Amino acid sequence: MKQAIFWVTSLAGLRKLTFKQKVKSLMNDQIQITIVLAMVHFDQYASAQRILQGLFQRSRLDQLNVVSLADLVADKSGIEVAAGEQFSADFESLPTHRFDSEETTVRYINDGEIVAEVSEDVNQNPLLKTRFVNQQPVQSAAYQAGEQFGILSYADGQLSQALLLNQQGQLVTRFIRHTQPVNLAYTMGRTSKLTFTDMVSETDTDQHVIYQSSEVQSYYEVISYQNYDRFDSVYSYYASLLENVVTADSGLFIDLNDNPRLTPYLPQQLIFNY
């Protein structure tokens, strides 16, 4: 293995101790590391960069090749973004309040309410622009090195769609969020000390204690505008990208939490977990 590719789908994955340990171990073995930030929530990319800066010393960080989904599709073909889906920054002439911390946040005020905000890097390049209606986000534009690469749409404060753009600003990939109810059951022995105080237990014929609940989980359908392929799972889409990213001399490392959903799409690929 000459290089290792770490496929990161969440900020929680970056924060795992095993992620840091495995990256450092491979670097000590002179393995070239590529970290792919593959989060559908494009607004998390700036936070991911800050986490990486906190995990590794500058000398090690300079040796890492950190890329994003936007980098992977930068040269891919796409279509023009529909007028109704383009991000409008018509709020930028409004009065502002500026807040400086890890990054600068500029909030735009109209009739006493916040109608938009912009996060900036140290060079005052935009990282994220967000429009609000009734205190809820309705749309965001994500930036990388000052160039827009994504548009996020929200419904009831939750991400509903994410549009991934190429370097010409064309739409390459659309992520559509869906939700579905999922039933859960936890079975344990009668002597187990684990209890769920917010659920009523049942007992089966073998005297096992059973807790049942349900929750609403989200998943993403994906449309690629290169060839109008449709993916019923974001993991199927990830697999299509990985076919072009992982070479014969590469090792692929994925979050253990992603393993059950990603590995079925890569049956011939040797995969390591972190």
Word description of this protein:
- The protein is of the alpha+beta class and 274 residues long.
- It has seven helices and 16 strands.
- It has helices at residues 11-15, 17-28, 45-55, 58-61, 69-73, 234-245, 259-262, and strands at residues 3-8, 32-37, 65-68, 96-100, 104-110, 113-120, 126-133, 136-144, 147-155, 158-165, 171-188, 201-203, 209-224, 229-231, 250-254, 271-273.
- The strands form two sheets. Strands 4, 5, 6, 7, 8, 9, 10, 11, 12, 13 and 14 form an eleven-stranded antiparallel beta sheet that branches. A five-stranded parallel beta sheet has the order 3-2-1-15-16.
Task: Give a brief rundown of this model.
With 274 residues, this protein is an alpha+beta fold. The chain has helices at residues 11-15, 17-28, 45-55, 58-61, 69-73, 234-245, 259-262; strands at 3-8, 32-37, 65-68, 96-100, 104-110, 113-120, 126-133, 136-144, 147-155, 158-165, 171-188, 201-203, 209-224, 229-231, 250-254, 271-273.
Topology (SSEs and partners):
Layout: E1 3-8, H1 11-15, H2 17-28, E2 32-37, H3 45-55, H4 58-61, E3 65-68, H5 69-73, E4 96-100, E5 104-110, E6 113-120, E7 126-133, E8 136-144, E9 147-155, E10 158-165, E11 171-188, E12 201-203, E13 209-224, E14 229-231, H6 234-245, E15 250-254, H7 259-262, E16 271-273
Parallel strand pairs: 1-2, 1-15, 2-3, 15-16
Antiparallel strand pairs: 4-5, 5-6, 6-7, 7-8, 8-9, 9-10, 10-11, 11-13, 12-13, 13-14
Shape: globular
Instruction: Report the span from N to C terminus.
Output: 17 Å
Q: What's the SSE pattern?
A: EHHEHHEHEEEEEEEEEEEHEHE
**Unreliable sequence segments:** none
Number of separate helices: 7
Proportion of helical residues: 10-25%
Helix/strand-derived category reads: alpha+beta
Radius of gyration: 22 Å
Give the mean pLDDT.
92
Number of strands: 16
Q: Main β-sheet: number of strands, strand sense, barrel status?
A: 11 strands, antiparallel
Assembly type: single chain
What proportion strand? 35-45%
